[in-house]
Design a protein that fits this description.
The complex is a heterodimer of chains A (893) and B (70).
Chain A lengths: L5 H17 L2 H7 L9 H11 L12 H8 L3 H19 L9 H33 L4 E6 L3 E6 L8 E4 L8 E13 L1 H4 L5 E3 L21 E2 L4 E13 L5 H8 L8 H32 L2 H15 L4 H18 L2 E3 L4 H7 L2 E4 L11 E7 L6 H13 L6 H12 L5 H4 E7 L7 E8 L4 E8 H7 E6 L2 E4 L2 H16 L3 E8 L16 E10 L6 H10 L3 E5 L4 H11 L6 E3 H5 L3 H10 L2 E3 L3 H13 L4 E4 L6 H6 L2 E5 L4 H6 L2 E3 L6 H40 L7 H15 L20 H35 L10 H27 L13 H16 L4 H5 L7 H29 L4
Chain B lengths: L1 H24 L1 H9 L4 H10 L1 H10 L10
The chains are: A alpha/beta (893), B mainly alpha (70).
């Protein structure tokens, strides 16, 4: 079935809600079969069965068994499983009873099991952590129940027709139509991106609708699920719940399959490069061996071992371990990584798009300026504003709270003891101001008023400047208006503050007393940026990550915040302008412009899409419902702990702390993770490519196999064991400076460039073993009378086994850094210890009964002198070639 | 017969080893020349065939001057 587009959903919701907004309340009650007293409890229960719980169907984590199966679904495990099956048929089913061998099957199955289970364990643990985080949020709502008064119920128990009571701080539990309300202000920032709360009324006010038709958010007698009450109280009827709400409809559009991220594409392309390479090379080995040796069964078994050897079977495990290790490191920094691969995308990210409200800013009103009438900072203005906010007894709005918080820091709390309140004239939306009458210790009375600047001008006849009272002339009025406009242009909300002393000696006061007042100045409020925002943006810039702001808020406020956090906002692109652009035009503009304002959720998502199509790895940070689509569109979606559930659910990474510097930590951890993954891939791929050359040469020119199939598998197992430590390796600081992303072509180039280096020394080892060491130990050349051919081959195999292990393991140290290994850049202790252990174990094997069992013969001491010399030469050649590679392609890894 | 087989092994392995070594070392003049604006692949082939001369030449050739933008 065709999925409804977002535009269609918006249209459908708009029609339904706009209809409800204009319908008579009596008809609404009838339509929802309810009354002003609310539903009966039994009826509410019945409706829950009909409408279901008031929850949004968003992505739920897969059950554990699905996760387990998925952990084994990767191309490498598939190849190994196929090879294990072939080996099972050839070595067990079809083999003669005495020749049956499970060794190959077991070794391959151990590799698959280790890789899959470790991956499952890590992913399952992360998903559970994310669920625990969500479970921390409990929300309830107050409803009226017919005959039962008001009671608190879980948000999920709200049904259409419920009469809901709303108060400051409440979440709106459903799409509701207001029945009655008082001073109701609702924050819709999570839905629309507007940082300012909007006022709601119990009757539709068409006068607030902008030109060009009303939008959903202009339905000012409707409140939307997912928004929250800032101040005031209300009673409302629930119109729709769960998925039928506007919030739910947005969520529904998000449940489709996510676009593959940069990580998904990268790992996929690299995997296929390696698989194609194996599919080409293995038949060559089979043919050369079959044709030169004549034994096609042996050649086939040998080719299977080579295929296993060439499969970077530990890749899924190394990748998962690397990602999980990155996630654990980030968890210590109070950051939850929900999707493991996001950690690598974090490192690859070269553009971070971020919402403004609540992510860069505190999403909290803070007093920014307290100015006299000419725009100079003046504590007297603040002091009077403080008296007004402190002594008023009706519900304190966000601005009152901001004034009190600011005044408390300056020690104004002592005014509580020096004044007492005589009366107050409460705020109303007609006069848009409020007053208190206070009396000082000396008995002097004062009327202090604050409110919208235009309203204040209408009640002021004087102005105060430096303690002198002046008539409020027309010229001064114009200056006051200009000053207020200038503060507005800086993104501030501005209130005027006035006072008068000649207050009558009465106990009750009215609106009429607000006359002939003295204007003292203004107070300005802002939603300020988080303390760490500026430093975090600077740190990201230094690490090659460009930051772009994508906000639903207006351009003036956005510009101000950008200035504060150090982002150039000379050129701002608005949502309307974006709609007029083609994707190509937007792709060009999006490269240049850093600030986008007045964006709808879809416009945000579109900008991210075009940036990704320009070849960038894009991160998006947001916290509202309006950010959910963008969070999913991005390569890495980042949200904060205080975000809406849907934003957290759409995000890959959740920051539990407000400190944005953790973004830099995440980027560096991502690059470290990627560095260690690509290190494994390049080292293993080039090493395997080199081995292929050596094996083809051996197949063509040696009279026997250079290594037995089981020896190749053992060598592979020991090498894999050494590689398990790679996720714990260090990365050079230079590597962490720039964004790192997948490039499958660089893997092929690296293989071709550095792989044959080891082949040169493999073939030198063949020559050494065949013409020097073996004849020396066994008393003559291969095939000579009295020389045991089996022992000759066993000694040869052991010699190449050890040389191959040494070169393959030491190359980890050579290629992990473009610097000189051990001297300029040293691997971490785990890598040093594990690789040394691998080399020691492998070197000792030919001298143990296991070595004899595997068909190896101990080498003489003189062999090691030759070996050390060859390894030194090998390392010199590898150093030269890696330097040349880095010069040619700019970077080694 | 066996001596012939062993000779075949020696010649085959040795020639493979030398060829691969030349293939690797030929990247040196090719990288130097490409940094001076010359074709990497042509200089790689030159280096593979005549390594010492290619190396000497790569060190001594002048960089190709970039033509100014019109």
């Amino acid at each position: 079935m065709k999925r409804e587009t977002s535009a269609e959903i918006t249209q459908r919701i708009f029609h339904r809600l706009s209809d409800a907004s204009t319908t008579e309340l009596a008809l609404l009650y009838k339509r929802h079969n309810t009354t002003a007293e609310g539903l009966e409890s039994l009826e509410a229960q019945l409706r829950q069965e009909v409408y279901g719980p008031n929850q949004i169907d968003t992505e739920r984590p897969s059950p554990w068994f699905i996760q387990l199966v998925k952990a084994f679904l990767d191309p490498f495990s598939g190849i190994l499983l196929f090879l294990a099956s072939v080996s099972f048929v050839m070595d067990v089913l079809l083999a003669a009873p005495g020749n049956r061998s499970w060794k190959t099957v077991i070794v391959i199955c151990v590799m698959i099991g280790l890789s899959g289970f470790l991956r499952f364990f890590q992913e399952h643990r992360s998903s559970q952590e994310a669920e625990k985080l969500k479970a921390l949020v409990h929300t309830t709502a107050t409803v009226k129940r017919s005959g039962g008064g008001t009671l608190e119920v879980k948000l999920s128990e709200i049904v259409p027709g419920d009469i809901v009571c709303l108060g400051a701080g409440d979440m709106i539990p459903a799409d509701v139509r207001l029945i009655s309300c008082k001073d109701l202000f609702v924050s819709q920032s999570s839905l629309t991106g507007e940082s300012e709360p909007v006022e709601k009324y119990d009757a539709l006010r068409q006068d607030t609708a902008p030109q060009g038709g009303i939008s959903l958010s202009d339905l000012n007698n409707i409140c939307f699920m997912g928004t929250n009450v800032i101040s005031g109280t209300a009673t409302a009827i629930a119109l729709a719940t769960g998925n039928d709400t506007y919030f739910g409809s947005i969520a529904k559009t998000l449940t489709g399959k996510r676009a593959p991220t940069s990580f998904d594409k990268g790992i996929n392309s690299v995997s296929w490069v390696l698989i194609r390479f194996m599919l080409v090379m293995v038949p060559i080995v089979l043919l050369v061996n079959g044709l030169t040796k004549g034994n096609w069964l042996d050649a086939f078994l040998f080719a299977i071992s080579i295929a296993v050897g060439l499969t970077p079977e530990m890749l899924p495990m190394i990748v998962t371990t690397n990602l999980a290790k990155g996630a654990v490191t980030m968890a210590k920094k109070k950051t939850v990584v929900k999707r493991l691969n996001a950690i690598q995308n974090f490192g690859a990210m070269d553009i971070l798009c971020t919402d403004k409200t609540g992510t860069l800013t505190l999403d909290k009103i803070v007093l920014e300026r307290h100015l006299d009438i000419h725009g100079n900072e003046d504590d007297r203005v603040l002091r009077h504003a403080y008296l007004n906010s402190f002594f008023q007894t009706s519900m304190k709005n966000l601005m009152d709270v901001a004034v009190i918080e600011y005044g408390d820091k300056l020690g104004f709390r002592e005014l509580e003891g020096k004044y007492h309140k005589v009366d107050e004239i409460p705020f109303d939306f007609v006069r848009r101001r409020m007053s208190v009458v206070v009396q000082a210790e000396n008995g002097e009375r004062e009327l202090v008023t604050k409110g919208a600047v235009e309203e204040m001008l209408s009640v002021c006849a004087f102005a105060e400047y430096h303690g002198e009272v002046l008539p409020l002339t027309g010229e001064l009025r114009e200056e006051v208006k200009t000053m207020a406009q200038s503060l507005n242009a800086q993104g501030m909300r501005v209130l005027g503050v006035a006072q008068k002393h000649n207050v009558p000696d009465e106990v009750t006061f009215g609106v009429a007393d607000e006359a002939d007042m003295i204007l003292m100045g203004y107070i300005g409020f802002l939603d300020p940026p988080k303390e760490s925002a500026s430093a975090a943006i600077q740190a990201l810039h230094e690490h090659g990550v460009r930051v772009k702001i994508l906000t639903g808020d207006n351009e003036i406020v956005t510009q101000r915040v950008c200035e504060q956090v150090g982002l150039a906002a000379d050129h701002i692109l608005l949502g309307g302008q974006i709609d007029a652009m083609t994707d190509d035009q937007l792709a060009k503009e999006a490269e240049i412009v850093s600030v986008f304002a007045k964006l709808s959720p879809l416009q945000k998502s579109r900008i991210i899409k075009v940036l990704r199509s320009n070849g960038h790895t894009v991160g998006y940070m947001g916290d509202g419902i309006n950010d959910a689509a963008a969070l999913r569109q991005a390569d890495v979606g980042i949200s904060v702990d205080t975000a809406m559930d849907i934003a957290k659910e759409s995000a890959d990474i959740i920051l539990l702390e407000k400190n944005l510097m953790v973004l830099e930590d995440g980027v560096l951890e991502g690059r470290r993770t990627f560095g260690n993954i690509i290190k494994y891939i390049k080292i293993t791929a080039s090493s395997n490519f080199g081995n292929m050359f050596s094996i083809v040469a051996a197949s063509a020119f040696l009279p026997f196999l250079p290594m037995l199939p089981v020896q190749i598998l053992l060598l592979n197992l020991i090498y894999d064991f050494s590689c398990i430590s790679i996720p714990w390796d260090n990365m050079d600081p230079e590597f962490l400076k720039t964004p790192r992303r997948w490039d499958a072509s660089s893997v092929s180039k690296f293989m071709v460039w550095l792989g044959p280096t080891s082949s040169v020394f493999d073939i030198t080892t063949y020559l050494l073993m065949f013409f020097v060491v073996c004849p020396l130990v066994l008393g003559g050349p291969f095939g000579a009378t009295g020389v045991n051919s089996t022992q000759f081959q066993a000694l040869f195999n052991a010699g190449w086994f050890v040389e191959s292990l040494w070169s393959q393991t030491l190359v980890i140290h050579m290629i992990r850094t473009p610097k000189i290994p051990f001297l300029q850049s040293r691997a971490s202790l785990p890598v040093l210890l594990v690789t040394t252990a691998g080399m020691v174990i492998g070197t000792l094997i030919p001298y143990t009964p296991l070595g004899a069992l595997l068909g190896m013969y101990p080498m003489p001491a003189i062999y090691f002198l030759w070996l050390v010399g060859m390894i030194v030469l090998y390392m010199l050649l590898a150093t030269l070639l890696k330097k040349l590679y880095a010069r040619r392609y700019g970077s080694l890894l | 017969m066996q001596i012939g087989q062993n000779l075949y092994t020696a010649i085959g392995l040795l020639s493979t080893c030398v060829t691969m070594l030349l293939g690797l070392l030929a990247t040196l003049p090719a990288v130097i020349a490409s940094e001076k604006g010359r074709s990497f692949s042509k200089w790689y082939i030159f280096g593979f065939v005549l390594l010492p001369i290619a190396l000497f030449a790569a060190y001594h050739i002048m960089p190709v001057k970039q033509s100014a933008a019109p």
